[in-house]
Records
---
Amino acid sequence: MLAMDQGVVEEWLSEYKTLPETAVSSYAASLKDKGSLVPALYKVIRENYSDLLEPVCHQLFEFYRSGEPRLQRFTLQFLPELVWSYLSVTACRDPHCSGCIEALLLGIYNLEIVDKDGQSKVLSFTIPSLSKPSVYHEPSSFGSLALTEGALANHGLSRVVYSGPHLQRETFTAQNRFEVLTFLLLCYNAALSYMTSSSLQSLCQLSSRVSICGYPRQQLRRYKGISARLMVTSEFLVQLITGIHFALCNGEVDLGSKALDDVLYRSQLELFPEALLVGNAIKSSLHGATLKSNKEGTRSIQVEITPTASRISRNAVTSLSIRGHRWKRHESQEDSVDSPDSCPTGPIPEISVTGVSGERLANGEALRCRTEGEALGGATEVGVDPRGQEVRRQKSVRKHLEDGTPSAGRVQL
Amino acid sequence: MTARKSGSRLESEIERCRSETQWDKIPELVRQLSAKLISNDDLGELLLGEAKLQQYLKENPIKQGTSPRGPRPRLQEVRKHLTAALDRGNLKPEYMQEASLIMAKLCYVEADYREALNQYGRVNLDEMQLVGAPVYRLSMIAEAYATKGLCLEKVPMASPSLSNRPADRDQEIITCYEKSGDIALLYLQEVEKALSAGIQNRSPKPGPVTQEQELGYFLETGLQRAHVIHFKNGNLTHGVGRFREILRAVETRTTQNLRMTIARQLAEILLRGMCEQSYWNPLEDPPHHSPLDDPLRHNPHIKDYALSRRPRIYSGENLFCPQENTEEALLLLLISESMANRDAVLSRIPEHNNDRIISLQSASLVYDLLTIALGRRGQYEMLSECLERAMKFAFEEFHLWFQLALSLMAAGKSARAVKVLKECIRLKPDDPTIPLLAVKLCIGNLHWLEEGERFAKIVIDMGEKAAEFRAKGYLAIGLVYSLKATDASLRGMQEEYQKKALSAFQRAQSLSPTDHLAVFYLALQLAVSRQIPEALGYVRQALQLQGDDVHSLHLLALLLSAQKHYHDGLNIIEMALSEYPENFILLFTKVKLETLCRGPEEALLSCKRMLQIWKSCYNLTNPSDSGRGSSLLDRAVADRRQLNAMSLPDFSDPETASHASSSLSGSEPVSPIFPLPSFYPPPKTESTQRPSSHAFCDHHAPRRRFSSASNLPDAFFHGFDSFIGVCSVHATSIAASRVEQALSEVASSLQSSAPKQGPLHPWMTLAQIWLHAAEVYIGMGKAAEATACTQEAANLFPMSHNVLFMKGQVAELRGNVDEAKRWYEEALSISPTHVKTMQRMGLILHQLQRYSLAEKFLRDAVQVNSTAHDVWNSLGEVLQAQGNDTAATECFLTALELEASCPILPFTIIPRSL
């Protein structure tokens, strides 16, 4: 480590200690002007044996504890590097050192799992439902959604899922290691927009190394750090992938796609469905997109004017166009087995191939109208709908005539 | 009078045609008009000019990204009409304005941008009335703003406004587009209103009424150009804001496609470029400084402009407003999905190939984004339902099939996942990961060993092609054989499978020498066949590769206990516990070892600590558990059919009867979903899930009588049964295991945020803690305490054979042989192959001097588990009592030999999974 870097770090260490309470905010704002500080701190973290490591970790923790968002993000930007440093040390089973990094990571974790008053934090997430009105839609416009059991079961329910409360952790154990690290990555991902490109690069490196160390691909990547395999969990990889996704779309194309490939490689070997699922989806969704790699780290999100007319020709048979179509019932037997399950509310008339199928569908439609009406808090819809239904039916018939499709099934009018 | 009347009707007819863009009808109407009133000649010119210009544009549309081509002869006529109307100046002021606007548009089409701007200079666009204006005029104003914006972009420094600073000019352009977009939305809403009113008033006339409105170049530009510019300038905050404004406007038929695209694009931005901390919700003001905006560019401060009328937005009480970027992305994607799904092209004729590809592409992008959003929040259950809807696109599409399979797997719907994986294998036969995923499921809680074997063989048959996965293939088939060996009831079969398993593990290990799993399972297999020293060698090797692997440490401890080095074993367990303090399987072994090494008092302390750990792990249940009750009910109803289908083969084929220890192997965390006796931590899920169990009970008519005494769902006793059955080596009843399977499917599908501490079901774990305590008390001869502990377990699972067995043990301790016999009989009626019960039963019958029956029980027990040394010993005693000394001697010798290599708990309590 160069003496100059050391000087920068030492100055940073002493400056904050003497800072009066009132100056914290302006100090936080001025941090980004200290150009050589961040690279110097990376060096300290990478060189595990530096004498500066302990005071640096301590100060990073003080930053986090201050509660000032900009200081917290300053600490957070080093998280990928700290996690890698910690994991590589545990893999080597090196008994000494890294104690302060462990303490820093646990410190951040223990701060993040509680709210301002020291109560355990429970993160909540509402799963939106199309059956409830939102700022972007009203349910009636989707009235024609398939009336499936699942749709019925979730009707009008907005589900809220929670994460937490989490246990305080005094030490890392093999059992809680990835639980804690996954949670820390979650915190990091929550601040991704604020992360510098060097931090994103470090995240990509962490992902690659964690995934390939000890596996044949390590030679391919020419990484010569440690060679022991690191245990990982699927949830941990999913959080890494979330960060990689951001990096990929925000300037780090090369490192990002390498990291994504490596994580997918590992997920295949470990047979982790969750990580494979999300990783595949990202790969496939970016397949067509041209990602720009530029040094300024410009956000490469661009949109163009898209034609508003449907790109699908009008005479193609789509889900929409056959919605009013009544299929001939071939499997009346199976149907009579199924129906008690799907409609446990009332007896369904026995259905024969010949006559009543129109009746049955109308029955289903009526049921739907009713549920919609309830969702809107009034029964008026029920009265109006038959007409709409009539229009729809006529349209579908016309469609048929236009298409000239031979009516294979019995079309009941 | 009549003429006047029909004149106004004519006027309204003209207005209607203009609103519905039926330009071809205008000339005829104008002819009628001029016949009526002379003073309307100028209006006629205006109308003809407009109609001809629109007709021209309809036939020669301007494409996005191109510029107009300049003057055209056909447009001369238009100019003549308009000039005539404008020059005479006889028109009413609003018609004069209209004429100017059309003229400006004509200038733009002829690429005369300056002149167009001049025309706009004559009309004050901002002062044109939006309230009460006819529908067509809204469209005209919207187009005018868009065209003005286009002209301003074309002509640098030509802004008629005073300031010429570039920033202000950019601002003016954007404001033009934004106003245009807003008015266009309003126009479309009004058209739709007029249309639906028309449908209600008149009988639906066949004709152009149903024809879909098409936005022209100008309105399309007006709606979208503003946000395109925002994003181009790196101004994400404003771009997102504009997107949201468009999406919040009540949708019309014409905007559906636009909404679908914009919703997806906004979701992309939310997922790719935002994070929780930089998010602001749609009803909030955007932050002043945002990391999303390009700091290098100067972002003009957007002035808020006023419009006298704005498009209607979604409103009402209790509108859902997202509070987080993933939430908003998810809402948008669900909206986008429902539309993309509607557009699924179903016909497979070649002419529709392109359409199909378009609909597939737009849908799969939406599904990929849904996967990213839901994956982040661990909502795999919902994801699997969404991807299920994607199946109408999925014919021969590997990506969609594979994603569905993975989502089902992640949601814990193993049986369906296996079926979908089969299709994936068909579509992509060279990929070794797919069959391996299938094996993982088969040897997990499904316990479909035959299927698992087939999948594993697919990988092995790939040979070199499978590359790094070849070793995994051998590992997989080894595990299948190993589990089969445990299940087999004939000793010959057991040995054959053990041999096969061993050689498969050896192969795996030689192919991938650095894989600790291969070495570990090799060690475990050797241990099961009681080759203790060899097993010790390999387990040490496994630990060198992966020092803190919990199963390797556990196996090491059990191996040491088999060599009767109990203290060393205990040390290892304690070391392992320092890394895995909440691992109950380790803790159970610890209790056993402590009883031997340190006496029952220490063991009881451990039991107490276990109860504390249990409480701290599962007492922390989060609020979403309460919501789960209902979803469990839903699932039970919904899955019934699926369960019927998937488990029927088990009845006919005893070979695949699933096995006790498999319930241990499921590594998926499960959550507390069962009601608890009064004094345990409060369950948040009473009432709701109880009916759900009936779904399972239905399969279970013969067993129902047991549950009559209890208010607990009987399905769970059997789950517990087969769990505690780990102590015996053989399968419990088939039916019980089938329910177990169903239970674990349901339970593991609820995992999203469940406690992750242990693989065991919390209530099963709790019951087992009590049973361990009871056992320790029995060892101490304390009948009363043992009874109390057993009762705790019985409160949770009264019909568990392990509980009944323990009751029998307590009765024996009290010297009550008859009562003990009754409990053992009950235990055996639930689990006829429970070895420990059979052994005790044999001994009691021996005491009662019913030797032949005793011998029968013990011989059956030995058949089930040939390594149970105490059964051999009891058998010897019975045979001796019958005077069969030679056979007795042989039994004693076998018992002695087995006892020398017997671990403190069976090796098979260690889970085996990929």
Note: Residues 1-5, 203-210, 621-760 of chain B have pLDDT under 50 and may be disordered.
---
Amino acid sequence: MLLELTNVVAGYGGGDVLRGVNLAVEEGTITCIVGPNGAGKSTVFTVISGILKPRTGQILFKGKSLVGLSPQQVLTRGLVQVPQNHSLFPAMTVRENVELGAYMLRDRSLVRKRYDEIQALFPTVRERASEQAGSLSGGQQRLVEFARCLMLDPSLVLLDEPSMGLDPKTLREVFKTITTMKEAGRTILLVEQNARAGLRLADHGVVMESGQVRLDGPSEGVLNNPEISALYLGGSVSKQAAGA
Amino acid sequence: MSLVLQGIVTGILTGGVYALMAAGLTLIFGVMDIINIAQGAFVILGAYLSYWLSVHLHIDLFLGLFITIPVMFVLGVILEWLLIRPLKRDRTQLSILVTYALAIIIEGLLYFFFSADNVKLFAWYTTQSIPVGPFYLPLIYLLAFALSVVLLAALYVLLYRTKFGRSVRATTQNRAAALLIGIDVERVAALTFGVGVALTAAGGMAYGATTPFTPNSHYDLISRLLVIIIFAGMGSLGGALIASVGMLVIENVTSLLWSPVWASTVFYVLLVIILLVRPQGLFGKFATRNQ
């Protein structure tokens, strides 16, 4: 396993948001975490990224513990996060934003090489390089965020609500890019409010509720689980599956 | 007409010095979301440091900056670590109280070491004037303005041409995202506070060489600086420069054409009008910050 969380308990102030989370992410796959609001999905990411320290439990990445590491140290291990809210620097150009993804790198020639590779992959970066990031549409900003996160050539990419606020056409483009990232050898862990779309994209599905993992398995199985379907997917997936 | 021109020129020159002091204040707010009420007290501290070096060690006011700027930078970094970093919640509101307390402490220490007597910095160039067109301009105003231009240019290079500057701008625009791409935002905050305070060393020297001061001069100063950065838009560096010059020109012209009594009033009347018409200031960052 590339990433393993064992009995992770974490929270803010006096309360626990995560109450013993067990989770495993296999290398080269897309894993999607779904669940109702307040389930602790995004908190899983803040704990993995080193922003929030777990109270107990273990987080192993490539067999080594991430517990106690700073966000900078987590990045150097090859794990990057694209957060839920727009995370670009709006008054900087698209190029500056993407280059900042390699902030941790000191080798300027490597930064240039990575930038060239990434602008070949992302037409938005190539075509809008000198424009202010704040002037792009929501979908374009999402793609620039993806481009930026690849500057460190990460092994694992954490995507928090990549579909948030996107129209269906842009959503398809964003999901296609996620598939391309997987095909390029990255492992993706994503949190998705649009559970059905997220699970269809993923190889593996995880359902969270009240700070714990309720169900974990191949995404198709999760998608077609009648109980989960009724609880989190509006109860229509099984009917659709039956009708198909 | 000559009087208006003189008011404008003097306003631009003094506005440059205020821009230097306001730049530090707005930079600190932009990066750290704190309002440093002690900025005026730091300016006066910087002025007294220049005074002490000049009187006791006979070091030229401008050469003394090579000592006072690094000293104030280190002081800023230490104070950020000691007083600002521990503020984890309600940071903006609490920072007002903490930095106000800091200003009072600095004022008290200055009274203790230097007394309440009026002080002005002296050097051969503080009493000279040079003819510029139809009127004479105090040489120190020109030198102070030149110093401000040089330091603001250096600040521009630091912010827009260095990796540290990128990290400062990134933290200003989106602190959470900056953290996630590996920027040590606490280190950036400490260094920014240091830079903001270091600028007051130069601002203090320029202020003290053009205006008599006492330990409590910081009250008037911080009021003006706050008006400038609110007028400009909290966190906007370019706006602070424009607002400093604009406000000081208006104040000077009012003073010369109408009355010095009304000059300060116009300053604050303008603030009220701006807040009513455009609450985020002329170049406010609230429209762009995404956090």
Note: The CA atoms of residues 173 and 288 of chain B lie 7 Å apart.
---
Amino acid sequence: MVYFINDIITGALIGLLYSLVAMGFVVIYRASKVFNFAQGELVIIGGFIVWFTTMQAGLSLWLSIPLSLVLAGLVGYAIERIFLTKLIGESVFSMVMVTVGLLILLRGLVLLVFGPAVRPFPIIFPLKPLFLGDMLIPMNLLIGGIITIVAAVGLSWFFNRTRSGLRMTAVAEDHVVASSMGISVKGSIAVAWVLGAILSTIGAMIFLSGKSLTFLASDIGFAALPVALFAGLESIGGLILAGIIIGIAQSLTTNYLDPLIGGSLGSVVPYIIMLAILLIRPTGLFGWRTIERV
Amino acid sequence: MALLLLAPYLVSSRIIAILNMMMISAVIAVGLQICTGYAGQINLGQAAFMGVGAYTASILASKTGLTFLLTIPLAGLSAALFGFLFGLTAARIKGFYLALTTIAAQFLFHFAVLNLPSTWLGGSNGITVPPAELFGQRFVSESSQFYLNFAVTAIMVAGAFGIVRSRFGRAFVAVRDDDVAAGIMGINVAATKANAFLIGAFYAGVGGALWAYLIRFVGVDQFTLFHSIFFVAMIIVGGMGSIVGALIGVFIIRIIQEIIATVGPNIADSVSFLGGDIVFAGMNVVLGGVIALFMILEPKGLMHRWNILKSSYRIWPFPY
């Protein structure tokens, strides 16, 4: 029974990590209507920035973490300036295709610059797990979960209550209408990408803390995809619930079903949930229902 | 065309090998063109559909010994069925949500191959494929395979020209341009989208079967998301919504890939820390850059540029 509860808690915490990465998707979508397929690549770039500032430049954690976040924001801004600003006014299809191009472009660049070598990642959160009776909870995931919830509450307040957040929401609704209302589409998309890159870097810190870093870690971007869809692409608060549900489902499958069937069903459970969600309720739990006009 | 038929006698076997790859890619890219370029459905799972075809053909060929005259169409059909399943989601969802189900197709395909009992699909070891055989003649050499690929590619491309001019093709274009309006005009939008996936996946499956007979080995690494994106790059470069455009795109992207694969190892000697990954990395950088550049500078592809040239030649010396 204790193990069962422990599995549920660990699963929920991993789910919250997925939520944080998925928040990158949602923030970019919420402010620019672009679905960023290259999210996992942003995570890995964030990871390499953190690795570079701590392990390579030898800065202390207190200095390197803020510096990494700033650098990640700059990378996000640069990507937006180089690739996406020029596409404002083009169809959303082109923008999505550009992020597909970015997915392989960034993957290749990371490989070219850093190579395929496995690197130690700095220990940002204490390695010692938290003991609750017989239960054992990984510290990085616990702190990460708290960060995720704080970020979700903060961002959902920003997007739903503040004036600039609502402006960005208008951009997500329709680029042309938003810009004719005097809202800067360019600025909105820039903010979205900076925020998206920063969130991905925080995600990388939680995910990789004390582990090893290779370019393969970007797979977490695709693991977070189902969470974003389950919540509905426009809902930031909903990510928490969706992340927890998917995390628990995955953890229980891995621990109880996989030994029975002798496979790794746990790794595809999120995608199966995603397909089911797309078929049953394509807008997700809390997404907007859109009305089409001709 | 006639010159192409004589190609095995005219050029070296290296070029024949490249031509073989181009023709197989052409079949798959033309399928993707129908699905994405004509029907407007973003498809990031074309390599998975190709994989389904390749596995079907290789299992049929190695276990039941069927002739390739049967395995290639059957491979196409099984891939089409797989693609149709994902196209069915179009009944409920549209736009890039659909692209996400095709990514799910990619992951589910990998999962199925790697986790089903290895006696079924070979697991991570892959499957060895016996060569195609007709009247006791085995298609082993590059040039004999060239004729096999050429025949199949010619049939498939000719079929594609027919499809896009038929009522299905016109329905695809209508759905691409505005699916709500198309629905009001009496087109069954969901069925049309599912059909687009069915046809696109059928082409991918046939291409996959040809691939299996050419390489004589299938493994799950040959059909990743990256390969799907390479096919997307082909139709973006060539131009969306044009069969000839898809062929041009295949030609250009395959040549770029060939150059990287040739030059890459030489560079790898001088920057040794990258090792063998430089080809993969370089391929990704160049093709990712090509996709982004074309989307920004020439979103309609080279075919569009060619059409402009053609019409300005026709009306010369008047501007329009």
Note: Residues 54 and 316 of chain B are 49 Å apart (CA to CA).
---
Amino acid sequence: MIQLSAVKKAFNQGRPNEYWALHGIDLAIEAGRVTALRGPSGSGKTTLLTLIGCLARPTSGRVRLRGEDISGLPERFLTEIRRQTFGFIFQQFNLIKGLSALENVILPAFPTGRPRAELVEKAEILFDQLKLGHRAAAKVEWLSGGEQQRVAIARALINDPAVIIADEPTANLDTALAREFMAILEGFTAAGKTVLLTSHDPLVVESSAVHRVVGMRDGRLVDA
Amino acid sequence: MHPWLEKQRHLIDFTLAALARRKAKNIGLLAAYALLVFVLASLALFTQALRKEAGFVLAASPEVIVQRMVAGRHDLIPPGYLDKIGRLRGVQKKEGRLWGYYYDPVVSANYTFMARPAEEVASGSIMLGATLARARGLQLGNLISFRSYAGKLFSFKVAALLSPDSELLAADLVLLSEEDFRAFFDYPAGHYTDIALSVANPQEVRNIAAKLANALPDSRPILREEVLRTYQSIFDWREGIVLTVLAGAILAFALLAWDKASGLSAEEKREIGILKAIGWETGDVIRMKLWEGVLVSLSAFLLGFVAAYIHVFYFGAAIFKPVLQGWAVLYPSFTLVPAVDGLQIATLAFFTIFPYSAAVLVPIWRAATTDPDAVMR
């Protein structure tokens, strides 16, 4: 599904504060499975996620999606791939305050020009699946942490992406909510979706819902 | 609906929601901006209506007025002068006019006395401008006495009040018979104040003025178009004065609007990052913000313009009237006929909507072109 070969990423390249976050990553991510990136803070997990999720381009190396090299594509094409192929669940959820849960969920579909009624219908189905139907009209800042995360999950699914990318998804959740998230994760694989997440939470990386754990340290892959 | 239109609808929906979320900032901005448009539009509408009004009123005045000059000063037209003009091709009618000014100490105001033919005003009667009648508390049939410059007292009966439609020009006008006029001012027989010429063909007016200047070197022909142009210049000048006086305030408002529009809060920058990360293109973000700029500035323009229209045409431009209409003891009361100059409005709309929308775009473009991975860090 996704292949990375000799991927490197530098920040502030050519400046005195140049920093290499990734030092040549070779990795293949299989379709329909849950892959977890595990490693301490600063190991390059999140940077790797941003490259795979088309949020940034590698400084060198290749990222291939279904065999197509996407590492050198202009931003416009990357955005389109990001919208169609990837759904993001951010660590801080990154919901837009002041808007209702429903409005937040349909936001990623606005650029597609799909009719509003269709988007609302799809969002309501997702809310039902995530047992959040009663909170659809509530403003996101009024929701609990677990509810906010489920809104973020519904938002990640609105464009029906093939790949779900989750950055430290349980970092802001208690144990019960973290287990609830893992149950939702199993639902993703049952629906044939590929999941890529970062975590150093044992509850996540040791879960049976995770098929593969990739270890990272200092911008390199290490044995998990 | 076409996907493109649907997308614009989504962007507008989001923009309206975004505006509603920052109510205090946006209402303040809208109010300041609408006030700016209100001031500029009030000035533009009022002076435009006055110019139009002057045009309407002067439409019926003679095309050429001939004055006689002595030592560079306006002097009386002596007997026989009218005949010297002779027959000029294109002149339909020539008429000697009698008019003068009278200072009334009762209300400390100057009136304009003008003689009319006996069939219009009978001897011993006068017709009055509405403002003057109000100032002196006169009604039809009342008697009024004026002491002439020679010290003699003259009494007149108010035979008619001039139509309020002509109040702008006839505010201080007193019409009386020629016989009464000459007696009141001790005006020498056969003399006139000036001569009015009616010319049918507007193309001929300048030629006739040139011929008059040749035939009567001591005369000064005054063309109606020159009078009109002088009025226009006076209103332009007054508009300019008000604009100059208000320039500081206008600039302050403009700076406030610009500052509010061009500053992005940390929350707004964060939102742009989120939108980009979840699949919005840079163009979508810019379009959304452009809609925001257009909605705010267009609403401010419409709000300011409608308020200015009501202020000028329903409340007589109460705020600017004292400066723009001129200074007088006898202020005419008049209702302006709504006159809107399309080009003037388009210019005002352009200069209010365009700079604001541009001010919104610059910081948004900067924020929208940053990498979307910022939200992950």
Note: Chain B has a mean pLDDT of 84.
